[in-house]
Every structure is written in C-alpha cells, then in structure tokens.
Amino acid sequence: MSATPADACPEIRLLTPREVIERADELVGLQRAAYRIEADLIGDDRIPQLSAAAPD
Q1: Cα dihedral sign for 8, 47, 13, 23?
Q2: Rounded to the nearest 5 degrees, what angle is found at the Cα of 29, between the Cα atoms of 24 and 30?
Q3: How far apart are CA 29 and CA 1, in angstroms?
Q4: Which of 20, 26, 37 is nearest to 47 (CA)?
Q5: Shortest CA distance to 12 belongs to which of 29, 30, 25, 32?
Q6: Alpha carbon distance 2, 15 (integer Å)
C-alpha cells in the first residue's frame, strides 16, 4: 500500500459563519453527493431535515 502525499489530503476545520454563507452552494452539493447512495437505496433523494431534539 502506498502512502498518500500530504498535499493530497484535504484540510479539515470548522468553517466560520461567513464561510458557510459564502460556500452554501458547494456545501449543499457535497451533502447531496454524500447522501446519494442512501437516497438510491430508499428511493428518495430528499435530505431529511436535521433537528436538535432527540426522538422520543
């Protein structure tokens, strides 16, 4: 197995509120791409709304 060059690894960090606003379209695209397999399995590509409350 070969090592991955450090420059090929993405930076992982928290975004500022301004960055979230500026990159909203890109973030939604990433979210949809990440959800694609599950959406195909359940036959529904609508991303469920997140909630801060835990289900009962």
Answers
A1: positive
A2: 100
A3: 31
A4: 37
A5: 30
A6: 31
Statement: the pTM of the whole predicted model exceeds 0.70? no
- Residue 34 makes CB contacts below 8 A (sequence gap 6+) with none
- Tens digit of each residue's pLDDT (9 = 90 or more) over 1-48: 566 666 678 888 999 999 999 999 999 888 888 888 888 888 887 877
Q: Is the model's pLDDT at 56 over the cut of 70?
A: no
- SS3 percent helix, strand, coil of the chain, rounded to 5, is 50, 0, 50
Rounded Cα distance, 16 and 55, in Å? 29
